[in-house]
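Appendix B, Record 12. Input sequence as logged:
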Amino acid sequence: MRHDRRLIGVGFQLFSSEGGEEFGAVREVCPGDRPELIVNIENAGDHRIPLEAVVAVRHGSVIVDVSRLPIELRSAIQHAHDAE
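Logged structural output:
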């Protein structure tokens, strides 16, 4: 399912599931007109997430299907709150 990139804004929070814990925030939307987001993942810095991994956009939140992401990125998301 593709979501209209115009619905996603800088600062939107990222979640791996509905009602799950936030793991980062959107920093850029479709830089250079590429179908991706630049996101800051807590404790892991900036990464690229393809728009095809976005499953929902609601009220300042972006829900991501992490199974559609590379293993390194999934690991970074899994460990986003380790320093807390």
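The first strand starts at residue 13 and ends at 15.
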